[in-house]
Amino acid sequence: MDQNHQQEQQDSLPAQVSKVAEELLAHLNVPGTVFCRDHRKDDSPHLWVEVLTEHSGLLIGERGNNLRALEHILRLLLRDILPKECRCILDVNTYRLRRMEFLKKLSKDSARRAVLSQHAITLEPMTAMERRIVHMALLEETGVETTSVGVDPARRVIIRPRDPVLAGVGEYKE
Questions:
Q1: Does the structure show a pLDDT above 80 at 18?
Q2: DSSP three-state, residue 126
Q3: Pick from 162, 133, 163: nearest CA to 148
Q4: 46-52 sheet: strands from edge to edge
Q5: Residue 17 burial class via C-beta count within 10 angstroms: exposed 0-12, middle 13-18, buried 19 and up
Q6: What are 34's strand-pairing partners?
Q7: Residues of the chain with CATH 3.30.300.20
Q8: N or C: fewer beta carbons within 10 Å in the chain?
Q9: pTM, two decimal places
């Protein structure tokens, strides 16, 4: 295969991904519009597949369970199309974007509470991707540290005040 043909295939990748996602929606009898944004040149190469539909509750499900299952199915359907280093992230009506923003705000608010109270704050159980968002959101926060505890699906993040004794405020309690 020559280099021009490989480049053409890579350029059409978002269109191919959109087509597969549209076919998946059709099999589910769910009308919707699919957009695929190419983020392969980012630090974390991925394709962001956004579905806009009036049936978002059905596709998202309770706490995003259906969305994660659909994303898994979409990845299986795309396994021969996507390069190994490229992830495919499925979103419905910006649910994931809104969830990410919520988790970042929750992280900052919980970190502030942990520092003020000198008590560890335990967050609700989360997926690996959601826990990563919390850890990354607080990476630059000097007053707290984060750890994940438990076993999936009950794995959660604990936000602890960092070195309270060294900061002169005594010990913290869990």
A1: yes
A2: coil
A3: 133
A4: 33-39, 46-52, 87-92
A5: buried
A6: 51
A7: 3-93
A8: N
A9: 0.76
Ordered DSSP codes for 90-124: EEETTHHHHHHHHHHHHHHHHHHHHHHHTB-EEPP
- Give 44-67 pLDDT, tens digit per residue: 778 899 999 999 999 999 989 999
Alpha helices in the chain (DSSP H): 3-11, 13-27, 56-60, 65-78, 95-117, 128-137
Q: Residue 92: name the closest of 28, 167, 159, 2 by CA.
A: 28
Structure tokens at 147: 């750890």
| CA terminus-to-terminus distance, the chain | 60
Q: What is the CATH number of domain 3-93?
A: 3.30.300.20
Tokens of 137: 């959101």
- The CATH T-level fold of domain 98-161 is Ribosomal Protein S8; Chain: A, domain 1 (3.30.1370)
Structure tokens at 150: 């438990």
Angle (nearest 5°) at CA 26 between 69 and 54 = 75
